[in-house]
Design a protein that fits this description.
By secondary structure, this protein is mainly alpha-helical. The protein has one domain. It has 5 helices and no strands. Helix 2 packs antiparallel against helix 3 and helix 4 packs across helix 5. The model has no long low-confidence stretch (mean pLDDT 87). The protein binds zinc ion. The site of zinc ion (ZN) has 7 residues, from helix 2.
Length: 91
């Protein structure tokens, strides 16, 4: 009885497990903005995101005027981050 070991499988799985874990998943553009913005802007954005009086569209329109275009959908998804229908940014 010969046990067939796919050559390289163990090595490839080892490589997956030891891959750099700098990113848990692709960041959405809101998360990317938070990661690169200065502390004051990031804090203001977090406050706006946490406030249900601020619409996702208002945030998206404002962010889009200062950098890459962000859609209201992306903002709404970032607000649901960590949930099954949210983005994969860290909560
Ligand atoms: Zn996000």
């Amino acid at each position: 009885m010969i046990e067939i070991q796919p050559i390289g499988l163990a090595e490839e799985l080892d490589a997956l497990a030891s891959a750099p874990t700098t990113h848990r998943g692709p960041q959405c553009s809101v998360g990317a903005f938070l990661a690169t913005a200065d502390e004051k802007a990031a804090a203001s954005l977090r406050a706006a995101l946490d406030s249900d009086r601020v619409t996702a569209k208002a945030i998206a329109d404002t962010l889009s005027r200062y950098g890459d275009a962000v859609t209201a959908y992306t903002v709404a998804r970032h607000r649901r981050r960590g949930q099954s229908n949210g983005c994969r940014c860290e909560r």
